[in-house]
Write a structure and sequence with these properties.
binds flavin-adenine dinucleotide; 30% strand; alpha/beta; 9-stranded mixed β-sheet; FAD/NAD(P)-binding domain; D-Amino Acid Oxidase, Chain A, domain 2; 8-stranded mixed β-sheet
Amino acid sequence: MVETSEVVIVGAGAAGCAVAYYLARSGVQATVIEEQDVAGQASGYAAGLLNPLQGHGIPGPMGAFAWESYQLHLKLWEDLQEETGLNLQGRTISSIRVAFEEADFSDMEDTLALFSATDGFEARWLNAREVHELDPRITPKSVGGLYSRGSAGVDSYQYTMALAEAAKKRGAVVRQGKVCGLEHSNGRMTGGRVTGVKLEDGMVSCDRVVLAMGPWSRQAEPWLGIYIPVDPLKGEILRFDLPAPALDYDLSGGGGSIYAKPDGQVWCGLTEEWKGFDRQASESARRSILESAVILIPELAHAQLVMHTACLRPVTPDWLPILGQAPGYENVYLATGAGKKGILLSPGIGKGIADLITKGDTELAISAFDPQRFTKP
Ligand SMILES: Cc1cc2nc3c(=O)[nH]c(=O)nc-3n(C[C@H](O)[C@H](O)[C@H](O)COP(=O)(O)OP(=O)(O)OC[C@H]3O[C@@H](n4cnc5c(N)ncnc54)[C@H](O)[C@@H]3O)c2cc1C
């Protein structure tokens, strides 16, 4: 019997699972096809920081969409936890940017102004004594810093799993398979309609296809005869057990970042390297992350390393996502290229693509992400 589905989504990262979830909420049945595991790539290992006020294209073409996605996150967590029983660890984040010399304060002025002016966010200067009162483990070399509160955090793995589980409970199918091509109604890759997805061991017929393949999106260029410029940016993180008490603040400064997790672990990072599809955790990254983390919390030099992860961010030439209808195709959609913000942006990606499929349009600010903006060099 030929397998069929209203919509096939290729890729079960945060993007693909969010599309499946929002489609399911609109009553549309989708099949998500994943080559490996749900949340098995960057979506399961990301730091999970959701900062809608800063990053590539913010303020600018990404600003409104980042804010909309952030608001969707805040509404989503309770529903997802209730529907799936998974603990997403959704929370508001308190951070300290640590200054090591007077000159560091000028780099923090933009954040102070931005956080102070935004509802639900706050920021204030700290002197050296106040930094140590907040946590005496922070380096004595600090001359002060900036306290801020208002970004959010989530456990990326649990969050992505919850999207997939909640979509399944509403009728979606999530299954293993490697997609290796598309079936075209005209038999050629010249636009028009796609009628199915080819797997290594079969075929799934469908009315619509969503390609949410993250850093592997270029695989689909020959399937469609179009240009999908997404490249992998490698990132590594070290996870430590920091002896109690749990750290209450994310820390940054001196080239390092430390993310405090509700289970008492601290995650340190992050690296950024263009190394193709290399996903090996490297000794050089381990050394450089540890060196910069120890600058912030010297005690980390003796903490137990519990995990070292390496994975790939899907990055486009303008650092903006690729969202919308594939050029020349009436029933193929691209949901990729969210770069360093793919967890933050995923509810916007999911809802935006689900709106396009069910209503032909969306109120979300995705016009700057039109796949047509790139032409083959
Ligand atoms: C170190 C690090 C830290 C990060 N921290 C943050 C953060 O704090 N906040 C934030 O918002 N973002 C963060 N990100 C970015 C975020 O992780 C990514 O943008 C996001 O996970 C991308 O999601 P995705 O679904 O597009 O891709 P992926 O998670 O890569 O999922 C794509 C899926 O498609 C599957 N696939 C590909 N080709 C096929 C095929 N032919 N057939 C079947 N399946 C296929 C893959 O197996 C994969 O599972 C971080 C990334 C890294 C690397």
